[in-house]
Amino acid sequence: MQGIILFALLVSTYLMVIAKRMPALIRSFRYQSLLLFLVTLLAAFNEKQVELYLISGMIILVKVFLIPYFLNFTAKKIKLDENLGLFVNSQLSLLLALIFTYCSWVLSVNLGFGQLSLLSVAVSVAFSVILIGAFLMISRMKAFTQVVGILVMENGIFLLASSISGGMPFFAEIAIFFDVFISVVIMGIFVFRINKLFTHIDVNKLSRLKG
Amino acid sequence: MMIILQIILLIITAPLLSGLITKIKNNLRMRKGQSVLQPYYNLAKLFFKDEVISETASWIFRVTPFVVLSSTLVVGILIPVFIFTSPVHQMGDFLVIVFIFALGRFFLALSALDTGSSFGGMGASREMFISSLVEPALCMVIFAVSLQFGSTDISAFSSMHVISVSSVVAALALFLITIAETSRIPVDNQETHLELTMVHEAMVLEYSGRSLALIEMASYIKQMILFFLIAQLIFPIGLPVGNFAQILPWVLWYLIRIGIIAVLVALVEVSVAKMRLFRVADFLGFAFVLGVVATVCAILGV
Amino acid sequence: MAIVIILGIPLLLAVGAFFVKGERLFGIINCLGYFVALCASIILFKEIVFAGHIGVFSNFIYLDLLSVVFIVVISVVAFAAALYSITYIRKDIEQKTISGRKARFYYLLSNLFCFFMFLVPSMNNLGMLWVAIEMTTLVSAFLVGFYNSKESVEAAWKYIIICSVGIIFALLGTILFSYAFSISGLSKSLNWSDMTPVAHILDKNILKIAFIFILVGYGTKAGLAPMHTWLPDAHSQAVAPISALLSGVLLKTAIYAILRFGIIIIKSGEFAYFTHLMILFGSISLVISSGFILVQKDLKRLLAYSSIEHIGIISIGFGLGSPLAIAGATLHVFNHAVTKSLMFFGAGNIVSFYKKHNMNAIKGVIKVLPFTGIMVLLGCFALTGFPPFSIFISEIMIITAAFSNGSYFIAGLLLIILSVIFGSFIYHFSKILFGNLPKGASTQGEPLSGKLAFLFLFFLICGLGVVLIFKYKDLLWLAQRLLQG
Amino acid sequence: MLYFLPQKLFLFDSLSLFFLVVILIVSLPSLVYSFGYLKGDYSAAKIFLAQVLLLAFVLFMALIVSVRNCLIFLVFWEIMSLVSYFLVIFDTKHARSIQAGLIYIVMTHIGTAFIIAAFMILHNHAHSFDFFAIKNACLAMPSQTKNIVFLLFLIGFGTKAGIVPLHIWLPYAHPQAPSHISSIMSGVMIKTAIYGIIRFVMFILGVNSSWWGVLILILAVITCLVGIIYALMERDIKRLLAYSSVENIGIILLGVGLSMFFISLNLPYLAVFSLIAGLYHLVNHAIFKGLLFLCAGSVYKATGTRDIEKLGGLIKKMPQTSAYFLLGAMAISALPPLNGFVSEWLTLQAFFLGAFNVIGGSKLFLGICAAMLALTSGLAAACFVKAFGVTFLAKPKSHYAESAKEVALSMRIGMLILAVLIVIFGLAAALIIKLLAKVSGSALSIDISNMSFCLNNFTLFPQMAKNVYLSTPLLALWLIILGITGFAIYRIFGRGKLTIYKTWDCGYYKLDSRNEYTATAFSKPFRIAFSFFLLPYRKTQKIRESFYHIKSFTYETRTTKIFKKYIYDPVLAMVLKAAMFMRRIQPGSIHLYLGYIFITLLLLLIFMRQF
């Protein structure tokens, strides 16, 4: 059961990699968050912890509804052209994503998780999500993708946390959620500002400050 | 007492040497030539002539003749020519001579610049150039010589009585140096007054009358001393304890030795042509190399 | 309860910034508040030196020597910045570059910024530590983009994105640490006060990997090359007092975080690992920053790169790890904070007069702003490690330690790079400081509060330089206890 | 363990005292001089600042030579550099002085880096910064380490002292400072470096192999020649003096290096003797170079130019200054019976005595070094004939010189003091040498109780040399006697009257200052003789109206500063190139920046095992 969800989560991440346009990206991020919510819910079932229920509730609140809504809202507000501006075309990106997955599996083995145990799968999925998130940030031009990328990485980390150490202390989790939300909002504000000053959000063109 | 005698003898004989060389040169050139005593006449004439001093000149121009003369004479009393050891030998050693000559030269060059004539400046420049190249060669020669008896003491030098390869080579080097120092062909030419060629003459161009006489005198004595050094290197005969009885043969022997050197100098002067100023560097470089060779010989003990 | 005061004051001021009208008045209140905080932090320091460590709120806030040292540094620079802000902000308002509303906004944000920076060393829970650091990024991003020009917004964007990414890796590292802790069969906790004592039984392999993430993550925030790229942009665009805070203390808080985990690594017996990594990054930072300093044209970027250089020195110092080196590095944390703030204040005055960052366009500062000019000149010598200023002492301590550890290569590198940087600093500053008055400029008077800020810092630079000569024994005694955890 | 505040801070052994005396000897006259010099040109506040800086400068030099702890030494050393930097850039209105200050402070800081390294290595062995602790530790130090430390010290202090090719800053910094400062910098400050070499290499480290001495001798010879040749080419009088300082540092180092050489050959007497020679020249140079710089300052003050081609005829306008300058020039050209002569004679004598007592090829080596020293003094004489002749003699060459007046009283007093010292140090040589013997004895920690250097209070008499004497008073006496005799003859027997008339002009009726021999012309033979080193080049520019008629014709000849051109400039260019290249890693693209983080992370994970 859990394995399937993890696999679906990985797939949703791949969907992000091949996404060429903004809505697609946000949609697949929403899927990913949803799956993450399922994972935590399962963990909550297994471990019978109240905090985990709460946390999963927060996931569905913040990551599945609030943030994607906010992103869409801003996207409409500044009515940008919806292309993401790929440095690396989607096929190649997908290939790289697979390589990242392999790397993360190697890493998880290095970290001493048992071969092919569910834990190791979870860890390698988490790592690959993180790596792919970073890759998204590097390989896409638009400011939005970088926001999404950060969120993806954060998801990955959350998955890792919940899968290996049964989550962090409760208040830490809450704080981190709060923090992530704030950061997204602030980034949104800056996206606005960039759009106002530069009349585009193509961060690749932001290169006045050199050397 | 003896030292006074020595000074007087030097002063008396010095012009003679110059006259002698000129005479020999003239005869070699198949001329009758002036009398050997001509320098004396010149000095006397100059001494009683009127003197003209440039209006540009300052006190330096006036004191120079005395400084030059006294510095030369100091060397004169420092070197024992007729006597075993100078009574003032505590005044200094061989090296001091170099510095004392430098003193005279320094002032001569300044006085040449003092009058503001471009001849003077040119002469000063060339003189300082030549002398600064002479210094290392001279130092090397002194080094070679003093290696032989492990000291820079003059009386030891002037009482040496063995002749060695090293001292002969050193003498050769010293000979070249002397030619440069006493402004003779091929480095300089005393007879010309052509601005392209003259060095020493250009410096003293503005001098006249008594001052000129003093300067001429000084240069005669300097020449004498240098010749004596060469002679001492080539024909080393230990000096007797100076007293009146033995002084006479001594003066003769001394004159003979000097005479021979004079002949050599004259021969050189008539046989070679004056060279360009910038080849003087090579000329004196050669002298320096000879000095080095002499040193090597001295180290090897031959 | 000094710690509560220290944490409380900035919050109160932040709230106060809303209600108090008149930025002039509030500026004075502000700097009084920070003066109290400064005193409190010194008292706290005393307590800790004797008590060893303090925990309040059931060890939610937990302080040891290392933390309190950083708290003192922060409070000093915060006080100076508050002092300087009074004139600076007023000048901006007079010049109509910002409105009164914005001034209050500034005070709000800067106080929040200080609050979160104070929070960093006092947190016990490593997760909360992470949160605090992330919050400093988010708050200060607005202060970087304060003037809302193209450059400043670009700088802010780069700052926020790069730091967030870096910091996310740090979070990953933190989780791995907690994993290493949890699999060692102990109760689930992220408190370093719990982790440190049992560090030796944790799984070394995981710790090592985790530390790499930590180093890259917090290293990004600390401005270790090659993750330093956001730093010059942000520092050159921020408001002058904030530049001082950023480069004076923000970087140091990140260093603090690295050290927290570093201590655990050391305790787990992987000292060499820690040493190598720290020295590696330190050296890279040194070399790269020296290159950029040499051919820099922008005044504030120059100072920013010199911050990178000093962070490099500090991390080398901590990396060397002998008591002398640690003492040196800790001192350097303080000295650099003070000196660099001085320089940034000076740069702030210069820039606000000339309206340019480009050093080729700035001439004759000493004639225009005599006080600032002289302060900057002296600060420039202080920053490049000339006696009798304090940085000389900390640098000489680190170099000595490097030599006596036998790591001649590092020592040689330090000496060479420091000379190069010195040369380029003197080159740049003699160009801008001396020379004739620019056309149409006349000698400017400078208000008192600005001067006070300079004098306060300068007093610390000189005073410390002298005092420490006498206090070296206590210093080493502290240094030995510093990394005990 | 690091001893920041040592228990015993100061050390006043005879070496320190000697250097303290040297510092005072030059500083006090300069201080007196400065009152007159600074007045008029600067505002009162600036004059006050200048005096404060001057006092601080002197104070820190004094501290440098009297501390006994490396770290404190270092602190004072750096502070001294700082203060002197401020003094160099004192005329902030000139861009040149800023540049000069830059070159100076950077070079000296690099030097300091080497010194720091040396100290740290010593500290590793001694675990202390105290001189004597290190001295004891050095007995057990492996000779390899000693060699490294020696080289570090040589480079470090050599930079300050201006050993070729590290002399590059000296001709920039010294001329730009106010003249009384130049006189202190040139007279004393560079000597603190010599103090460093003597103190740390000879006293503390202890000479352990003979190549140290040989190396220093070779460097010293090069320094002498290069310094004086450049000085000959100069036409800016203060730069000329600065270069001649380089030369004199060379002569001092000849003494020091010789002493090292003899120590390694275990010839204690000669070691002491040659160190005496070195120290004697050190104090002499302090005096006459101080005097010369003060005179140059007076000339600058009176005329407003430092270019000797524009001067001339000053001997009539400023008689006292010119007299002092002449005295200084005579002393520095080693003319008897002044002090420069004594020290150069001692150095030469040291070479000769050494040659008599060593064996084989070393004899030749020493002889050639001596010859080079002789060449140097010859060139120095030429250089100062030029300097004095062109500056003070003949007719004024420009309006600068025509309007000159004699300088203020305080300045003249300052110069007078030094001039008197020159004569004293020339005539009282024997007494001074007795003192210096103690100094160098203690510096080399050699017992000098059974060594004698003087016959009596008037006559030098090196014990090892077979009856070699030098008595400057006697020499002076005889010079005067014979001079007076000559004068007497001149007056008594001379007939004929004395007329003042124009200089002989070959019938060309209006001879003026433009016909005079210039400094450039004076140095032409040297320029050609040493062209292999100076690489002279000329720029000629004709402005023609027509093919036949040339309207104006400019001609200038320059020499190439080869060390700057072939060593420093390329290195600097290389560093800058590297920096510019490095600058490219930051093109402003955020994606690239994120990439850096990512790649760093991956690399670290991959190579984790290596750490």
Describe it for me?
The complex is a heterotetramer of chains A (211), B (302), C (485) and D (611). Chain A is mainly alpha-helical. Chain A has one domain. Chain A has helices at residues 2-18, 22-47, 50-77, 90-110, 118-139, 143-164, 170-198. The N and C termini of chain A lie far apart (52 Å). Chain B is an all-alpha fold and 302 residues long. Chain B is built from eleven helices and one strand. Chain B has helices at residues 2-28, 38-48, 59-78, 94-114, 118-148, 154-158, 165-181, 200-203, 209-234, 244-271, 280-300; one strand at residues 51-54. In chain B, helix 4 (94-114) runs antiparallel to helix 5 (118-148) and helix 9 crosses helix 10 (244-271). Helix content of chain C is 79%, strand content 2%. In chain C, helix 10 (240-267) packs parallel to helix 12 (299-320) and helix 11 (271-294) runs antiparallel to helix 12. Chain C is globular. Chain D is mostly helical. Chain D is built from 24 helices and three strands. In chain D, a hairpin with a 5-residue loop joins strand 2 (537-544) and strand 3. In chain D, helix 11 (268-303) packs antiparallel against helix 13 (319-332) and helix 11 runs antiparallel to helix 14. The two termini of chain D are 29 Å apart. Chains B and D meet through strand 1, helix 3, helix 4, helix 5 and helix 9 of B and helix 14, helix 15, helix 19, strand 1 and helix 21 of D. Strand 1 (51-54) of chain B pairs parallel with strand 1 (498-501) of chain D, so a sheet runs across the interface.
